[in-house]
Each structure stands twice: as C-alpha cells, then as structure tokens.
Amino acid sequence: LAKTTQPISMDSYEGQEVNITCSHNNIATNDYITWYQQFPSQGPRFIIQGYKTKVTNEVASLFIPADRKSSTLSLPRVSLSDTAVYYCLEARGSTLGRLYFGRGTQLTVWP
Amino acid sequence: ETGVTQSPTHLIKTRGQQVTLRCSSQSGHNTVSWYQQALGQGPQFIFQYYREEENGRGNFPPRFSGLQFPNYSSELNVNALELDDSALYLCASSLGQGGQETQYFGPGTRLLVL
After folding, report:
1. Interfacial A residues in 41-80 facing B (CB < 8 Å)
2. Interchain contact, A43 vs B40, CB within 8 Å
3. What's the rounded Cα separation, in Å, for the pair A37 and A44?
4. What are A1-60's pLDDT values in tens digits?
5. CB A33 within 8 A of CB A49
C-alpha cells in the first residue's frame, strides 16, 4: 500500500516554477524520500532522493523539513516536456527494494 | 535511456493462456524487480530477484512466477491469464537489493488479455 499522500493533479505554464508537496505522516527513521517521473507508456524514471534538508541535482530540488513529515519537489522553469506523472515514495534503506507507488500527481504544463 | 530493455513491447493473449515476459537489466546490476501497472494507477510490486533468488514478493498469486539468469536478465511468467491481468508490466534493475538503491525501469510490456 502507498504510504504517501500527494495532489492528484496540478497545472502550470511554461517557464514557471512548480512545487509538488507530498505528505509522509508515517515515515520511518530509516526511510529515504524518493521521487520518480513517468511519461505515458514509459517506465518511471528516478528524479531525486533525500533524507533530510535540501537536495539539488541538475533536474530538480527536494526540500525536506526537520520533522520529515512532508517533502516538496521543486521543478524550476518547467517546459511542455515536463508534463508527466510524479510519484513520491518512501524507500526503506534496510529492507529489500520494493517501491510503493501511489497514484502520483499528474502535472500538465501549458504553453 | 536506462539501458533496461523488455520484450515484447505489446502482447495480446486470451483468458487461460500463459505468457512469458523478458527483461535485460542494466550492465552491472544484480537485482531485478517486476511491477504491474494498471491503467490510471501507480506500479504495484510483484517480486524481486537478487542474484538468481526470489528476494521478496508482493500481493500477487502463485500463478505469477519468475526467474533470474546468471547474466541477471529475468523472466516473468503468468499462468492461467485473467482479464484483470491486462496491464503494463515493468521491470527495474538496480545495483543492489536495498530500498534506497535507485531502480532503473524499462519501457514495459503492455499485455492485453481478451
């Protein structure tokens, strides 16, 4: 069962910054917070992962507050090609790598 | 491109038949996980193979089975197909079996059961 809660859909325009927030009310001490992106008829693609505070890579930033009960994926200056479903997950480092996907957030970017 | 390939890309079967789906993992990866994704849903974990052994299973019946070969490629077999088995089947490879390991997904096999 998915253990996270995130909005079903979001809309944005090209060039804007998009922030998608996820709730992790039951996150365990050794869980990592991970985000994947999925385009139609393709497999999910890893975007970013963090444990606490802020992580940034060439694609996105991930903000995790001190209590780790939520996380925010930030996509700077989105383009039409960022239209996709975004999943937040909790990945438990000490156990086997099964990923629990919810329904994700459908992000639609408009021109 | 993740380097994970799956075959076939599409498949049509009838109820009661059996199907075998194949996955080649990314070079150097010893772990393969399989997921089922129904339309409009997120992927659901079927099972994982680590160094040719099943290493964990989700809530799927025994008619879903798998294999991992010495080169770490993998097969998913589904017997006695049901209409609800129609879905996108995804495999993902990773460097290890741990939960924090990044999983690299293939493009999937779309199965339609009539």
Report:
1. 41-46, 49
2. no
3. 5
4. 557 899 999 999 999 999 999 999 888 888 889 999 999 989 999 999 999 889 999 999
5. yes
